[in-house]
Amino acid sequence: MLKKGLAVLAIVALLGMPAFADAPAKETATQASGSAAQLGFALAFGLAIAAFGGALGQSNAIGKAVDAVARQPEAGARIQGMMIIGLALIETLVIYMLLICFMWGGKVGV
């Protein structure tokens, strides 16, 4: 439980960092490229976290479904249907992050 709490706290701290940044009065070319690099790093890091979390969620869901079918084989079809719906919902979160990367990726300028 402590690990989950620390992980959530770390993610909130990373996502909240831009709120404490000062807005520059005038951006120079070096500052613009620096902010683009930071945006690119943030997008890549966010996509990595989303893919890692999605993989953990999917592996957990599949493991639990296999355990449930092993205990009650006659409910296998119903469990499989619910598992597939759950896997689709987990995967949509990763796809949303990928879409965010595509939308904001044009601002990176690479």
Descriptive notes:
By secondary structure, the protein is an all-alpha fold. The chain is built from three helices and no strands. The protein starts with a helix and ends in a 5-residue tail after the last helix.
Distinct helical segment count: 3
What Rg is obtained from the alpha carbons, in whole angstroms?
A: 20 Å
- The helical percent reads over 70%
> CATH homologous superfamily name of the domain at 37-105?
F1F0 ATP synthase subunit C
Order of helices and strands: HHH
For the record, the CATH architecture of the domain at 37-105 stands as Up-down Bundle
CATH class of the domain at 37-105: Mainly Alpha
> Unreliable stretches, pLDDT < 50, 5 or more residues?
none
Oligomer class: single chain
| Terminal-residue CA separation | 40 Å
How can the largest sheet be summarized?
none
Q: Give me the count of strands.
A: 0
Strand content: under 5%
Structural class: mainly alpha
Query: What overall geometry do the principal axes of the alpha carbons give?
Result: elongated
Write a concise keyword list for the protein shown above.
110 residues, mainly alpha, F1FO ATP Synthase, 3 helices, 80% helix, 0% strand
